[in-house]
Amino acid sequence: MPSKKANGEGSVQKYYKDGVLKGWRTTITIGRDDTGKLVRKQFYGKTKLDAIKKKDEYMNKSAAGLLPCDEKITLQEWIKIWLYEYRINDLRPSSLAAYNSLYKNYILNSQIGMRKLKDLKSTNIQAYYNTLVKDKHKTPNTIKSINKMLKPAINQAVKENYIIINPCNNVILPKITNKKEIQIFTLEEEEKFLKSIQDHRNKALFILVLGTGLRIGEVVALKWSDIDFENNELKIQRTFKRVSKINIENPAENKTAIIEQEPKTKSSKRTIPVPLNIMEELKKHKKRQIEEKLKSGDIYVNNDLVFPNELGEPTDTRNLTRSYERALKKAKIDYRNFHALRHTYATRLFEADVPLKTVQELLGHADISTTANIYTHVLPKQKIKAVNRINHLFAL
What we know:
Site-specific tyrosine recombinase, which acts by catalyzing the cutting and rejoining of the recombining DNA molecules. Pfam families: Phage_int_SAM_3, Phage_integrase. The termini are far apart. This protein is 44% helix and 13% strand. It is an alpha+beta fold. Helix 2 (75-86) packs antiparallel against helix 3, helix 2 packs across helix 5 and helix 7 packs antiparallel against helix 9 (276-296). It has three domains: 11-64, no CATH class; 75-170, Tyrosine recombinase, N-terminal domain (DNA polymerase, domain 1); 187-236 and 268-386, Intergrase catalytic core (hpI Integrase, Chain A, Orthogonal Bundle).
């Protein structure tokens, strides 16, 4: 007489479909539902051994606490949970908006987004990344950004037992080979630019960025209370950024707003000395701003901003960029982005033999290697200068 199976061990039997033998099936009891009815789970295989093996794997995972919490949840469903429940309070608004954009453009309804999380493999993600690069012509930086979101999201899923291992761990990202050379103004171009903006409404703003290297979000968020006219310096304490509004129910919605947020890193919060001539220009700018305020009357909003729009509200960086581009055309200078003003500031510092560490602190970079990597075009010249200074010691 066969021995009785232990509770949950299961039975193995052949199974048929339309009278045709299809393979083997094993059934186990995994508990009871809310009504007290037994809940059974079945495992199928082409052979008896295959069916038993699948059942044993399930039971081993169950004993180790490694079973998915929800076997039907898809990657896109999990990313939505991770983004809007786990990370919504600790991510900077701009980072949340960036992740939301990646989610709706590359995960939602994509070939990997609709795949069940428990079935997601490295090969699936690798194939998707390869398709984005080869067929969609997406850049290595875009792939890196997608993976930067996916990896921590799936790490959380591993902790929650939705999936056993993180498939992102074994993905090979495309190499970033064509690093763009930074754009700067030559001394001649800088002089032409400064001459052409003498009557420009944003004259003081452009000059300040050229003389301090502020980022565009930092300069439009600058307040008069941040400027110390007595000690000729200013403090960076906030930044403005236009971000997508988050609609959890409809992630595809595309509305934006200007928000104030903390600078990107602790190093970005900094005090910067300002050249005396630029401080004088700021004083003139303040007088012009008072006149502008009087003309606007009651509709002017006093936000204490140094560079607001005509009504005192935060300047939209898109409008500022367009204003800058028109100034370039007027000066007959080839296009280069707004960030070129910041790069030009750093380049002039290196040309004046300012140490790398000092330049790093003035720019607000968290890591000195960031500064060194960006300004590789300048540093070799500084090395040559340094060597030439000791050349006379070797005159024989």
